[in-house]
Amino acid sequence: GQNIDQPTEMTATEGAIVQINCTYQTSGFNGLFWYQQHAGEAPTFLSYNVLDGLEEKGRFSSFLSRSKGYSYLLLKELQMKDSASYLCAVRGVDSNYQLIWGAGTKLIIKP
Amino acid sequence: NAGVTQTPKFRILKIGQSMTLQCTQDMNHNYMYWYRQDPGMGLKLIYYSVGAGITDKGEVPNGYNVSRSTTEDFPLRLELAAPSQTSVYFCASIQGGSETQYFGPGTRLLVL
User: Fold this and answer.
1) What pLDDT is recorded for position B57?
2) Mean pLDDT of chain B
3) Out of A4, A99, A102, whose CB is closest to B101?
């Protein structure tokens, strides 16, 4: 079957660093995505990994290990506005660009 | 560009009623998707379309229908609404070869 797992909720302190993990088991792989979703809003694209390694984009970085079926999203210098859900999604091969979505990790930032 | 727009933003339906959720994109994207998101859950694919005149079922299509007569529009039809269809519905689109799905603001539907 196809499965994407990520923690349900995490708490971190403003100014700190947090790592959100995602593990996946899918039939075929053509990229892993991270989206941010603030409460009551639509998801917005954060990052895309298709090769192993780390992709850095400002305060956010995303890592992929295809052999381990594992990714993480690293958020540095946390700000209160980073309080949101972070959704991990995988694109399969010949998938018509469909994504298989994890349930999301709700990140709570405390002052 | 307005991107992906959805109407209405919020709707209350009685059991057995029907309605159409509208979705329009002005980016000339060929791929479009309808998702539902229940509280604390990820996105579940209802239907998708790879171009005008072509639609296909996703993971949870029962109780829904779609059409794609133009590139821009991808309406979702609910027939005989049921409480289990209470959810937030998102429409999304992507251009083939691109990485990013663009989402509409969502329609919050309550079936009582």
Assistant:
1) 95
2) 95
3) A99
Angle, CA B71 vertex, CA B33 and CA A42 arms, to 5°: 35
- In the chain, the amino acid numbered A29 is F
Q: Which two tokens stand for residue B92?
A: 């999304």
pLDDT in tens, B55-105: 999 999 999 999 999 999 999 999 899 999 999 999 999 998 888 899 999
Token duo for residue A54: 């780390």
Measure CB to CB from residue A101 to each of B40, B42, B48 and give the nearest one: B42
Cα B5 to Cα B22: distance, rounded to the nearest angstrom: 8
Q: Which amino acid appears at position B63 of this protein?
A: G
Q: Which residue of B has its CA nearest to A86?
A: B42
Give Dmax over CA atoms of chain A in angstroms. 45
Cβ-defined contact of B101 to A8 (cutoff 8 Å): no
Q: Tokens standing for A110?
A: 């405390």
Residue type, A101: W
Assess whether the previous peptide bond of B8 is cis (omega < 30° from 0): yes
pLDDT over threshold 70, residue A1 = no
Residue B12 · residue B107 · CB < 8 Å: no
Spatial neighbors of A56 by CB under 8 A, at least 6 apart, are none
Tokens of A47: 């990052």
What's the gap in Å between the CA of B1 and the closest CA on chain A? 17
Alpha helices in A22-67, H assignment, sequence order: none
